[in-house]
Amino acid sequence: MGQLYANIIVDISQEKLDRTFSYLVPETMQNLIHIGDVVEVPFGKGNRLTKGYVVELTGTTQYQISKMKPVQEILVGTDQTTGEDRLIALAAWMRNTYGSTMIQALKTVIPIKKKIRQKERKTLILLLSDAEAEEKLRFYAKKNQKARYRLLEALLEEKEIPYELAVGKLNLSASVIRTMAEQGILKTESVLVYRNPLHQKHQGAYNIALNEEQRKVVDGIWNDKVHRTSLLHGVTGSGKTEVYMELIARTVAQQRQAIVLIPEISLTYQTVMRFYRRFGERISIIHSRLSAGEKYDQFQRAQNGDIDIMIGPRSALFTPFSRLGLIIIDEEHEPSYKSETTPRYHARETAIERAKLEGAKVVLGSATPSLEAYYRAKQGKYALYTMTKRARGSALPDVEIVDMREELRNGNRSVISQSLKEAMTEKLQAKEQMMLFLNRRGYAGFLSCRSCGHVVMCPHCDVSLSVHNHGRMVCHYCGYEAKKPVVCPKCGSTFISTFGTGTQQVEQVVKKMFPEAGVLRMDMDTTREKDGHEKILAAFQNQEADILIGTQMIVKGHDFPNVTLVGILAADLSLYAQDYKAGERTFQLLTQAAGRAGRGEKSGNVIIQSYDPEHYCITAASRQDYCGFYEEEMSYRMLAGYPPAVYMMSLHGTGKDEAHLQTAMDYLVKMMQRMPESARIRVLGPTAESIGKIQDEYRKVIYIKGEDLQILTGIKNKLEKYIKMNEGYRTVQIQFDLEN
Ligand code: ADP
Ligand code: ZN
Ligand code: ZN
């Protein structure tokens, strides 16, 4: 066997751990040493024996062998490492897979310690008997006092709720709470506690029995000795959450712990309370509103063994449980599981890696799985389970596709088709609610000249400025603002006007069409203030309006039982985005939007308006046909060579000097062409990114595709090293991004 070298991080409490130190691995240790092991190595001037972590093992080294020292001893092997050691091993894996420095990876995985402060916490406690409270509820309903109704209803159910929860999730003002306290309905009590964002005593009150389909899934996953990872493909409302909870209960019964990842947006009050009702105090929740200290406290409680279950967004994956048995990723397809900052890890792949280190299972759940997950399930890498029926028996909605070209031919130039108008009229008469969804990222139109075609652009970014109600133009990328010009800045023509339809325009059309209807709009403008988002949703939930108009924001996670109509205006827009995932995203959005209709007793209708009504993404979404969509989309990815058919890594370069950036990127391509692995990869670019300039920084990208992930990783490591050592790369930033 050749000489083996270990790259080791010495003492992670030091700030200098950005670099690793290379050590010789003695012959006798070669079969015993693993990445993630804690070892003892001689370090520093006096060769003091110091604790270190093995983050890489290689057969080559760039250092002088005669000066290298050997690893002394394996203190803790990977089979008996502590939770923290395993998290460090996970960080090493992330660094290697996604490209970052070790310190960036470690900071992602292990939150920085902050002094723990005890904090006073307020709780609201119900003072009325149930009968009195119900009496009062009827009174509030009659008086149309919605805020008080909401709070009392929650209190009747829970008896006490944390103050922050009332103000946050229930959207109540302090004055409502004060008034109700003065009337003796509730009292507020301050308790000195270990900061817990939620705190309830509910265990045991839970008694939903799984149906046949759910039980099969639970038993299948639980007894599976072959697959670490399972994919649960179940339509919205099929009872996936109940499946998760049963698996969690079994995990906890074995003295092991569970992590549940959810996209932030689906963390609704109802979902939270479902988990609390079932698991009581052994659960904790982190979300983006917690301060760093509060988040640290929750991780501390996990480490101390005070809780068994952690729910939260992406970063909850790093909860320091030492006996982790289960990781659940709900809405597995959500883009928010991919980190946008270095290391750009994907929570799905990172969860699977962590589960491997911990001997845990992973369950991925979605109504519209990502192509990656479904592909791997079909390959047999994951176990696949399907749930096709809604658990409470309600039917899937009726879907109609309206051809907007036909609509134009019939002389209707409105954004609302004849069909949609009729359906809206009907539902308004029946006093039912509806949602109009604009599949679009821009929130308002852009300004363009009809004489010369000039489009008003941001001076710092390669994007058009968006026109807002208040007569100003805004750049959504850098925040640049300018007054709307009255003549074309290029040719001086006065024929300059707004193009494109934003939510504001839709709102105007709808208000004109249905003057008596209550309309709410949710977009960038209306949600700017803190909690604006939740206030609008709460108002709609309380049926303070008939129609909710919005962008992507309104689609996800929310359960409005009185919504029986969903109108999707211009379904195709996102199909034209320059991203190979555009079709997948459109299908997911349409399917989810359609899934908003008819969640309650009444059945629902969905109307999809499209200029491209035969497109498979749209027809498949209208039939709620995931498998049909998957087959079409996968054959396209195979043909065009996109993930998951191949692995793809992008190299994003940014810099203020365009020519210099081009040279720097060109050189990286040249280097790759000279590498021995070059025959196994395809390199595309450099080309300008779809937005070539943001905030005066030019942006270029290189794509590298290949069948073998190891090869891509190896190339990345070589380039990373080169970039780090080379002067020419000081003034540009190069970031690696692995698609997976
Ligand atoms: P999903 O997570 O797939 O959207 P949920 O688990 O939220 O589905 O279930 C949808 C609804 O059906 C919830 O109100 C839930 O309480 C109910 N439900 C789920 N499973 C059962 C069951 N076995 N018996 C009765 N109701 C159920
Ligand atoms: Zn002009
Ligand atoms: Zn800009």
What this model shows, in words?
Residues 221-387 form the Helicase ATP-binding domain. It is an enzyme of class 5 (isomerase). Zn(2+) 1 binds at residues 449, 452, 488, 491. This protein has 740 residues and is an alpha/beta fold. The protein has 5 domains: 4-109, GIY-YIG endonuclease (3-Layer(aba) Sandwich), CATH 3.40.1440.60; 120-192, no CATH class; 212-387, Rossmann fold; 398-443 and 499-636, Rossmann fold; 647-739, Ribosomal protein S10 (Alpha-Beta Plaits, 2-Layer Sandwich). It has a 7-stranded parallel sheet, sandwiched between helices. Strands 16-26-25-17-24-23 form a 6-stranded parallel sheet, with helices on both faces. A 5-stranded antiparallel sheet has the order 2-1-4-3-5, with helices on one face. Strand 19 and strand 20 (472-474) form a beta hairpin. Helix 1 (83-98) packs antiparallel against helix 11. Residues 113-118 and 191-203 have low confidence and may be disordered. The structure holds adenosine-5'-diphosphate (ADP) and zinc ion (ZN) (2 copies). Residues 458, 460-461, 475, 477-478, 480 line the site of one zinc ion.
